[in-house]
Amino acid sequence: MLVTFSSDATEAEAAGALDHLKAKGANAILVPAAGVWRIVILSGQIAPEDIGFLPGVQEVRPVLSPFKLASRETCPEDTVVNVAGVKIGGGQPVVIAGPCAVEDEEQTYKAALMVKAAGAHLLRGGAYKPRTSPYSFQGLGRRGLEILAEAGRSVGLPVVTEVVATDDLELVSIYADVLQIGARNMQNFALLAAAGKAGKPILLKRGLSATIEEWLMAAEYILKTGNRQVILCERGIRTFETLTRNTLDLSAVVAAKVYSHLPVLVDPSHATGLPELIIPLSRAATAAGADGVMVEVHPEPCEAKCDGFQALTAKELSQLIEEVRKGAECR
Ligand code: PEP
Ligand code: MN
Asked: How far is the C-alpha of 169 from the C-alpha of 97, rounded, in Å?
């Protein structure tokens, strides 16, 4: 159920209603957005008449969506996630770029310079890599985090990096401006809940075989901790297609924008694995309503320790940023 307060209701009235609901055994959460107090009742036997009479309450109505906190039903306004001054959602498209993995200082620094020079907004790079083969490069761990954070700082870009295990959260949170939860961990519910509590923005990738609803329910695990800074990222799903690495599901982008208030990014690098498709699909992504894209770049794609085949060059990244802008103009 959604409890909406009148625009002149006070924080004390909203907090009082929350206490009242909790005393009645409800699991409820206060959601401040757009200058209006709202309470979402997640579970518990509460009837509208149990709360409708409380001071400041304007309306009580059911929430039909299973992803209650991610749904536009409980928050019609676009959520804007602010990462060190970079706004993701509800405005200009953002571009996150960087290498698949942090390999060493020189590679990361060169990549950071490329990303900055092209005009991208955030630097990405994996220090913990969830690889299909245990024999593939697994990332530099703590050293990788240090290198990425230093490269980002030196060019003035916030950094996004993946956290693969709950035990690493504290360490990764020291260095990351955005915590990435990868496709393979989208339903690692313990990691989602713990990451939510770290208090950082979280970029949640869609699982390889996850439905749109499963993806939004995964976001719900984070939102339920009280952390509203969730960024969704469509990165392609498994289909019968083999020409592309995965199949970019733009309908999921539109659906996520229509049914949820969270910002949505697209990762055409992992979706296609083909540099020649990454630029046109980035344009298509923002034309479809995506709030930006995340792509892989490398100063020497042929030398990359991972995913070099899909890494863009500096020139391609500049073209991509131009196309992303053109796509956004179509909306
Ligand atoms: C990545 O972005 O580095 C990555 C591993 O992507 P995904 O989780 O989408 O496979
Ligand atoms: Mn990669």
From this structure: 22
Which ligand sits nearest to residue 297's alpha carbon? 2
Read off the pLDDT of residues 5-45 as tens digits, 9 standing for 90 and up: 999 999 999 999 999 999 999 999 999 777 899 999 999 99
Ligand whose nearest atom lies closest to the CA of 267:
1
Give φ, ψ of 173 to 5 degrees.
-65, -25
Spatial CA neighbour of 27 closest among 40, 17, 14, 11: 40
What is the DSSP track for 174-226? HH-SEEEE-GGGTT-HHHHHHHHHTTS-EEEEPPTT--HHHHHHHHHHHHTTT
Q: Which of 221, 222, 325, 213 is nearest to 279 (CA)?
A: 325
The per-residue pLDDT for range 283-309, each reduced to its tens digit, is 999 999 999 999 999 999 999 999 999
Residue nearest (by alpha carbon) to ligand 1 atom 5: 182
Q: CB-based contacts of 16: which residues, under 8 Å, 6+ apart?
A: 54, 55
Please give the domain boundaries of the chain with CATH numbers for all domains. 2-61 (3.30.70), 81-329 (3.20.20.70)
Ligand 1 pocket, Cβ-based, cut-off 6 angstroms: 100, 126, 130, 162, 182-184, 205, 235, 267, 270
The position carrying tokens 């339903």 is: 187
